[in-house]
Amino acid sequence: MATEATPPVNSDTAEDEARRQLPAETFEYASGGAGDGATVRRNIARLDSLSLLPRMLRDVSRIDMGTDVVGGRLAAPFLVAPMGMQSIYHEGAESAAATAAAQLGLGFCLSTFASHSPKEVAGAAGRQVRWRQVYLMSDSGLTDALVEGAEDAGFDAVVCTVDVPVMGASRRDAGNVFDHSSQELREAASQPAVADEPYFTGLLAERRRETPGASAQEVIDTLFPNPAATWKELERLIARSRLPVIVKGVLHPEDATRAIEAGAAAVVVSNHGGYQHDRSVTSIDALPGVAGAVGGRVPVYFDSGIRRGSHAAVALARGASAVLVGRPVLWGLAAGGRDGVAAVLRDLVEDLHNTMAIVGAPTVADLAAATTVAD
Predict the structure, then answer these.
(1) Which of 351, 367, 372 is nearest to 285 (CA)?
(2) Which residue would you say has higher pLDDT here, 168 or 129?
(3) Which ranges of the chain does DSSP label H, i.e. alpha helix?
(4) What are the backbone dihedrals phi and psi of residue 307, each rounded to the nearest 5 degrees, phi first?
(5) 135 with 161: CB under 8 angstroms?
């Protein structure tokens, strides 16, 4: 876990500072990807390869980045993506990141495997947009309990991630997101906030009756990932949730249509930031097809590869309504806690503001009508 440092000013300097501050394995856990990391690199490279075609003599004396998303309105079209075990990067963990996002009027999505509880994070985020991410566990009772916890804590939406039927294998770790050699990673993996859910503690007590001394991680391993999950389970979740459900991990246009038919309030075009497979299609290449299939029926959000505000502009021009930011937030958290996250997010917002002015898009809606050009 990192100590306090000088807050970084952008994702590049934050990454360098995080590399300096963190144990090598912890940094690699945040920054690496499946296989040899090819999808991580291609996500960024493809965003870099797309340019915006500017329009001239448009009044850009006032840039309005305000964006409506499921659950409320953002000052700019950015949310923090769901990422687990943030206590390994900084003691402030998810609460620090949520506070930083809220200070800038941005949204926050809490991971199933977060270090801090929904109530802690809801308090940190205040009334800014708060989403709670869940998986379709092999025991649907636990999934329901997580949704109920989000409802009780005042979250605005549930984000159901559907792109982890099995764990993505990495050549740079043990192949299992929770199977690491460093003590810090093992301790964080063994103490996620989900382990304090009453339903989970019941499962753990039952397991310990059969196997004395069984750990929380051993129970998690029996529940997640769930390779048997199907659209039927998603439909059941959407039907029982009192909150709108956003489906994350959609890359194929037909899956986007299927999600809407199941009752999804929105979809997130995502390849899990390259964590799942090293030959996955990049999210930015999948985005136009998904947006076309959705046809405006629900919002389409985007993640995987955002490093600059100009990347967000490209995603918005290709059909996204807002973007989720992953690794740069973790680097900012490691480099400077809450202030580090705020610095990274502020840099993204300022870069988007500048990009919108230069391409002649005074509003996000104008940016959505912009033309992208491939190199």
Answers:
(1) 372
(2) 129
(3) 11-21, 24-31, 38-48, 93-103, 118-125, 140-153, 183-190, 198-210, 216-223, 231-240, 253-262, 283-294, 309-317, 327-359, 364-368
(4) -125, -20
(5) yes
**For residue 157, what are the domain limits?**
11-374
Confidence label for 295 from pLDDT (cuts 50, 70 and 90): very high
CATH number, domain with residue 369 = 3.20.20.70
DSSP secondary structure letter of residue 35: B
Counting Cβ atoms within 10 Å, is residue 223 exposed (0-12), middle (13-18) or buried (19+)? Answer: middle
Which pTM was predicted? 0.95
pLDDT average, residue stretch 344-368: 98
Residue 3 DSSP label: P
With respect to residue 2, please indicate whether it lies within any of the assigned structural domains.
no
Residue 313 lies in a domain: yes
In a domain, 285, yes or no: yes
For 340-369, what is the mean pLDDT? 97
3 falls within a domain: no
What does each C-alpha distance from 334 to 19, 46, 86, 137 come to in angstroms? 9, 27, 9, 30
- Active-site residue list: 272
pLDDT per residue as tens digits for the range 189-229: 667 899 899 999 999 999 999 999 888 888 999 999 999 99
Helix and strand tally (H, E) in the chain? 15, 12
How many Cβ atoms sit within 10 Å of the Cβ of residue 145?
Answer: 20
Whether 161 and 127 have beta carbons less than 8 Å apart is answered as no
Give the C-alpha distances (Å, rounded to integers) separating 121 from 114, 128, 194, 354.
Answer: 10, 11, 13, 31
In this prediction, residues 25-47 reach a mean pLDDT of 94
CA distance 283 to 305: 8
CB atoms within 10 A of CB 167: 17
Q: How far apart are CA 364 and CA 57, in angstroms?
A: 17
Name the domain count of the chain. 1
pLDDT > 90 in the chain, percent: 86
As a whole number, mean pLDDT of residues 302-310 equals: 98
Sign of CA dihedral 357, 362, 365, 369: negative
